[in-house]
Design brief:
The chain is an alpha/beta fold and 141 residues long. Helices cover 44% and strands 18% of the residues. The chain has a 5-stranded mixed sheet. Helix 3 crosses helix 4. The longest helix has 20 residues.
């Protein structure tokens, strides 16, 4: 696990007056926060290619496949829902948020506010559990 506070070449670029940015994958930690990068939007971990979370300094902009239960959990202003199997729409949604980090940042802030207002850990755990069980039941049919 990379210690974001340690010396790195991006810090040197910033100290020399360069603006720095990272958009895409960050394989070294949860996020590049504290690593000296001025602007960033990254895929979580190795980057899920199915329903990826895009992490920004303000939170997560979510691109998800429209499946049962997700619409209730994800307000439209916090990301984008795409039709199941529409790989092109998924790619466009992810590319849009990586190319427009201000949008991903705004959606992340909105999602953070939504979660603070409408969710608590117990409710979230029940919702995820119910969704998981319904998906498993659907696979068995």
């Amino acid at each position: 696990k990379f210690d974001n506070s340690q010396w790195n070449w991006v810090r040197e670029l910033g100290a020399s007056g360069y603006d720095t940015a990272l958009f895409g994958k960050w394989h070294l930690n949860y996020s590049p926060e504290g690593a000296g990068i001025d602007d960033w939007a990254v895929l979580d971990d190795q980057g899920k290619y199915y329903n990826p979370d895009i992490i920004t300094p303000s939170g997560r902009s979510v691109v998800a496949t429209r499946v049962e239960g997700i619409q209730e959990s994800l307000p439209f202003e916090c990301g984008e829902l795409v039709a199941p199997g529409d790989v092109d729409a998924l790619a466009r949604a992810v590319a849009l948020r990586l190319s427009r980090p201000a949008l991903a940042d705004l959606e992340g802030r909105r999602g953070h506010v939504h979660v603070q207002k409408h969710r608590d850990a117990a409710t979230a755990a029940r919702t995820v559990s119910q969704l998981s069980l319904s998906l498993l039941a659907a696979q068995r049919r």
